[in-house]
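Handout, page 2. Input:
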Amino acid sequence: MKKGFIGLFMLTTLLVFVGCSVGQSQEVGKTEKLQASAAAKTSENVEKSTVPTVFIHGYGGTANSFGGMIQRLTNAGKTQREMVITVQTDGSLQVDGQLSKKKNNPSIQVLFLANKDNEWNQTKWIYEVLKYVKQQGADQINLVGHSMGGVSSLRYLTTYGQPEDAPMIKKFISIGAPFNDFDDTSGEQSIDNLLQNGPSQEASRYVDYTNGIDNIPDQLPILLLAGKLAEDSTTDGTVPLTSALATYPLLKAHGNPITYQVFTGPHAQHSQLHENLEVDQAVADFLW
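Output:
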């Protein structure tokens, strides 16, 4: 009788265990299907082309500066990392990888070995990089710059415009770029006033942009991304909103289709902007 009770108890326990395992397997399978469905949907919503996107890091930047964003966007099926171009201190290029010419929204990461050099040298180096990219068969590119990379990218546009030996810039994104240096003018003007009238104090960098504005193709779509640490903050901890958005009225008056987006919170801190998943999404939505 005792043995029968023990046997019945063991059989019941086994059935419960098996039932739980099956339930867990079904849940795991369901989760995997949902993830696969989300990935497929993400990929389906992306417009694919052969146009490369060139990423330019900021002051003191490294391979990590845009490496994470490119990898996340690659994992999501929105782009494909194809090339890394390292600009040596003498301006020569070290190239890893090559453009496949496939419709996979290829990404090119640009690294400056002299990563704390001035923006004028960076501007020349960007020109050399883009000439090389044109030689590889790319007639158009998208340009994305973080911080000083955004500053130098806009200086490239106001300096060189649309040279025949470089690809046409199809779209341009700046992320936390100090277009009017690092002075916070929010005490003198609201953001609405800035967006309408420009900065109340113009740094020499901003004056250079104004003087070279006619070199920028007026149909070039531009997205300005900026961050602030909290709702009542006026800075991402490094770059004031009044600087990151300073060129909005200048470019709008020039005729460029231009939009902006401001992110809030600890992940909107200056060096975290290119690690922010919301920024990833904004970049992908604008480009593709």
